[in-house]
Amino acid sequence: MDNSPEQTVPTVAVVLATHNRQSSTLRSLASLLVAAESADAQISIIHIDDGSTDGTAQAVLRLIPDAQQVLTDGNQYWAGAMRVGLTLAYQSNPDYVLWLNDDVLLYPDALKELLAVSNNPAALTIAVGALLEPGTDTCSYSAVTAQQTWRKTVFGLLTPDQANGTTTADTMNGNLVLLPRAVYQQVGNFDPVFQHGMADYDYGLRATQRFGCRIAVSSRFLGECARNSTEGTFRDRSLGLRERWKLLLDPKGLPPKQWLHFQRCHGGPTWPIAAASPYVQTLIPRRLNRSNSAPRASSAPPVEVVILYKSLPHYRVPLYELMREQLAQSNVTLRLIVGQPDAVESTKNDTGEITWAEQVQNRQLPARGQALLWQPVLRSVRDADLVVVEQASKLIVNNFFAGWRRFGGPQLALWGHGINRNTAASSAAGEWWKKLMVRQSDWFFAYTSGVAEDVIAMGVPLGQVTDLHNAIDTRQLSSFRDAVSDEESAKTRSELGLGAGPVGLYVGSLYKEKALPSLVQIGEQIRSIIPDFELIIVGDGEERPALEALARSRPWLHILGTLFAAELAQVASVASLMMIPGWVGLVVLDAGALRLPIITSDRPDHSVEIDYVTDGVNGLVCPVDETSAAAMISELLRDPDRLARMTAASRKLADETTIENMAARFTQGILDCLAQESRS
Do 662 and 470 meet the contact criterion of CB atoms below 8 Å apart? Predict the structure, then answer.
């Protein structure tokens, strides 16, 4: 005899509010019926039609004859209509109540997934379904988390990627929400103050802050729902001031009584300033920002994006050219504004040129501890929709952009390293500034996955971070290296006066942070183990005279100056490994393109691209001690099979981390940033 407990089918009351959207409503309800069957749930539908004149109410009853329907006068709007529906839903005491927007297309397993997330009607767990922007992989609606800014009511979306993480949701968009009985019995209905918007955010905040409820996000996307367009709203800058002001005060805008109530309840000590902000921004003229992540019609006003960089290194030229082409396909104009390299950067001889780039004269401003830099661009970017700047505390203009965006200026995105991982060289003030700035921006473009994790930990939502997989264009370098024959390599070895022994290669700028004296010492130590080892240094910079002086007494040390493309590939063909003891950056990808594993040291001052080096896989991370490093390198040189495996892994990394992928990620991040509402 089977004594297992009888499995009961959960009861779910679905509340739907509509107004003149017959087509999308029927599509949404049809997808709900499929999802209910898949979930093996008993659903009842409560439909509140708020004055539709397009036949929505009649069409719903034809599709679902047993739906409980209430017709209202057209003045209830979303929150008012939902309040009527929730009152009816609570009367039957169902296991769950589902909020469903009439423009949500559910995937077949959507309800099943929500019931798995909130699997006990007696528990205080609200399940929120994450939704996709149709035709994209961008999250449009989900649960949200409050950002760590002076404003307590700035929120960022939580995506399914974070569902199993430690991030806790504070509230939610009301498009697809499942409330268990324990929650709706304690939290109750929508606050009667709210007529349209803000009611869902207020409900979630009350649930979490007053009643200790937990808001959980689905582990995958459960449907599609297009974000509301700003066109025709108070955010539409193509409209006149009088029209925008009228729309701002409309029930679908930010009616003062409702907005002030929301801010007073949830905005913290600075709520009066936050409450005034949208009204001030509406009064200040600003260029229209109507962009979205889908390609725009060529007849639409172009969106303008500015990338501001203190100088233009040659390795960034292909990136900007690719991005300009890709953004143009979405009717987005990319402007690049660059200054000049400083005295130290000038010695590297790696400045690039782009014909369409705009030049400004950087101004050095002396300050205690470091030289600040002023970039005179405010006037020239006043019509931009988005400005992307380097994340650097010495760039004064960034502070102006952070303030300007609050009062109608361009959106602001940062591009950088996140934090200074070298704590010995970082300043408390500088790191504080970085944390402040990332919270005052609309987007962050992270060099690597590690940087992305750092800035998310600093308070930037995952949905507003793009992991660029920072790269350089190694295609040409790879092709040149592949084209070098054994005969040409032997000829290069002869021309350089090299013997038959293994060769280490350094490629990069010659300055203090590269630990070049340590490199020479490592070379000497290797020679004590492998006497015919030789070292080639390719590059230029302030340390070159000192290195040339060392080379005069060390015939095994060869200083060649700066080489590019085919010449560099020829020289690399005689080497067995790339040796960069200090400050490893994008040279990791150069090493792979040149068929060389990367050898570096365990120093705290590397650039973030050190994330690309996996010790023992595509290279070695040696101790700082030169003797120990030399022993490890010598052991590798004496193990051809291990060296070959590392070489293959290094080449694989370079082949996968391409400038094309970086440009595509950067472009999509820009489009996603433009598509969202500013976090100001």
Answer: yes
Domain 303-471+660-675: state its class. alpha beta
Q: Give the strand pairing for 443-446 and 411-416.
A: parallel
Each residue's pLDDT tens digit, 591-641: 999 999 999 999 888 888 899 999 999 999 999 999 999 999 999 999 999
3-state secondary structure of 643: helix
273 exposure class (CB count in 10 Å sphere: 0-12, 13-18, 19+):
middle
Instruction: Please answer whether residues 96 and 121 qualify as being in contact, where contact means their C-beta atoms are separated by less than 8 angstroms.
Output: yes
Domain 475-657 is classified in which CATH homologous superfamily? Glycogen Phosphorylase B; (3.40.50.2000)
pTM value?
A: 0.64
Alpha carbon 517 to its chain centroid, in Å, reads: 38
C-alpha R_g of the chain: 30
Q: What is the CATH number of domain 11-224?
A: 3.90.550.60
* Type of residue at 82: M
C-alpha 193/C-alpha 189 separation (Å) is 11
Task: Tell me how far apart the alpha carbons of residues 253 and 278 are, in angstroms, rounded to a whole number.
Answer: 10
Please tell me the distance from the alpha carbon of residue 616 to that of residue 636, in angstroms, as a whole number.
10
* β pairing state of 125-128 and 176-180: antiparallel
Asked if 536 and 554 touch (Cβ cutoff 8 Å), the reply is no
Sheet of 557-561, strands arranged across: 557-561, 534-538, 503-507, 577-579, 598-601, 619-622
Question: And the tokens for 525?
Answer: 């130590």
pLDDT in tens, 163-196: 655 567 899 999 999 999 999 999 999 999 999 9
- Can you tell me the distance from the alpha carbon of 239 to that of 398, in angstroms, rounded to the nearest whole number? 29
Strands (E) in 406-561, as ranges, are 411-416, 443-446, 465-467, 503-507, 534-538, 557-561
The closest alpha carbon to 145, from 175, 124, 131, 166, belongs to: 166
Residue 287 CB coordination number (10 Å): 17
Q: What are phi and psi of 454, to 5 degrees?
A: -65, -45
Residues 6+ apart with CB under 8 A from 8: none
Tokens 């969202």 correspond to 676
CA distances to 10, 130, 135, 400 from 28, rounded to whole Å, are 21, 15, 17, 45
